[in-house]
Amino acid sequence: MTSIKDDLPELIPVEGKDGLYRDVSSTAIVKDNQDEYDKYMASYNKRQKEAAEKRALQNEVSELKSEMSEIKSLLLTLVQDKNDR
User: Fold this and answer.
1) Mind listing the pLDDT tens digit for each residue in 3-14?
2) How far apart, in Å, do the first and last CA atoms of the chain sit?
3) Domain check: are 53 and 24 in the same one?
4) Is the residue at 38 inside a domain?
5) Whole-angstrom distance, CA of residue 37 vs CA of residue 5
6) CB 55 within 8 A of CB 36
7) Same domain as 77, residue 51
8) pTM value?
9) Do 49 and 25 belong to one domain?
């Protein structure tokens, strides 16, 4: 397991909280577990990809519905023209 403490030496341990440190320069609390962070980011990226795929499918369905509506309209016009003759 890699440690964030190796990369950021200005971290002060948070009392009573194992693996949590306060960054002196930004006062942020950081967790000292790169493996958990990597798992979180993999999960986040997977959710983002799935959401993008869902949006793409929704757009494609909307386009298909629009095209089907146009085709239906053209067919109705052809039928009406044929009946009018």
Assistant:
1) 555 555 688 889
2) 81
3) no
4) no
5) 14
6) no
7) yes
8) 0.57
9) no
Give the position of tokens 């309209």. 73
Which residue carries 């980011």 as its tokens?
41
Residue 41 contacts residue 26 (beta carbons within 8 Å)? no
pLDDT digits (tens, 9 = 90+) for 19-63: 888 988 888 988 888 888 899 999 999 999 999 999 999 999 999
Q: Show the domain range for 60.
A: 44-85
DSSP code per residue over the chain: ---HHHH-TTEEEPTT-TTEEEETTT--EEES-HHHHHHHHHHHHHHHHHHHHHHHHHHHHHHHHHHHHHHHHHHHHHHHHHHH-
One-letter amino acid identity for 81?
D
If we measure between CA atoms, which residue out of 18, 15, 49, 68 comes closest to residue 3?
18
Is residue 68 within 8 Å of residue 60, measured between CB atoms?
no
**Do 42 and 48 form a contact (C-beta atoms < 8 A)?**
no
Which residues on adjacent β-strands are paired with residue 12? Answer: 22
